[in-house]
Write a structure and sequence with these properties.
Order of helices and strands: HEEEEHEHHHH
Oligomer: single chain
Structural class: mainly alpha
Shape: elongated
Radius of gyration: 29 Å
Helix content: 55-70%
Strand content: 5-15%
Length: about 200
């Protein structure tokens, strides 16, 4: 998937908003959204929440995971363990990017949250590159990628597919070289036996 497609998937997840207008339910292919009543929270797709916020028609209710204490704990846990910790949202980067860029004033301590999310992202991507590098060097038969999000996987996709293609070609070359060597040894043995038989028959 391309980055735009990954962002599109993330935008389909719901988020809370507090509208400042009244409106009947909106019927979409995915189902009904609303009704909207001024001052009453409602959960709607992220893409619609961003659209309404840009028009000053609502206030975004930050997801529960956008909490500095929770994110600080996640960051420390991510640094301690070799494996990937489970993130509170599979699309945390998409949500953070859209919400914090569109309505930072709706999120308490938004600057601190933005920094923590970036730190967690950097730690996880560095760990992902290290894990992939170890696998390609043959230091492990499998790669444990539990809890890695789609957006994170996308960061190594171009490199990984190219590297795996090269490894596959190298392995095929080794197999071919081994097969040729085996045929050569078999030919030498056959010739040697023929010569030995010929001498004995004289």
């Amino acid at each position: 998937m391309e980055p735009d497609e990954l962002e599109f998937i993330g935008e389909s997840f719901t988020i809370g908003v507090i509208p400042n207008f009244n409106h009947d339910p909106i019927y979409l292919i995915s189902g009904a959204i609303g009704p909207f009543k001024g001052g009453y929270p409602v959960h709607i797709p992220l893409w619609l929440a961003i659209h309404l916020r840009q028009q000053q028609k609502c206030r975004i209710v930050p997801p529960e995971w956008m909490d500095p204490k929770l994110l600080e704990d996640l960051k420390e846990e991510e640094k301690r363990t070799r494996h990937f910790t489970k993130m509170p949202s599979e699309h945390y980067m998409v949500e953070a990017k859209l919400v914090l860029n569109t309505a930072p004033e709706d999120v308490p301590q938004s600057d601190e949250i933005k920094t923590l999310v970036k730190d967690i992202w950097d730690i996880r991507c560095a760990k992902l590159r290290t894990t992939t590098d170890m696998f390609l060097k043959g230091e492990g038969e499998t790669v444990k990628l539990d809890n890695v999000t789609l957006v994170e996987l996308h960061t190594i996709r171009p490199f990984l597919t190219h590297a795996m293609d090269l490894l596959s070609r190298i392995q095929e070359s080794k197999k071919a070289a081994g097969a040729n060597s085996s045929l050569a040894n078999q030919s030498i043995m056959t010739n040697s036996m023929s010569g030995w038989n010929s001498r004995n028959s004289q």
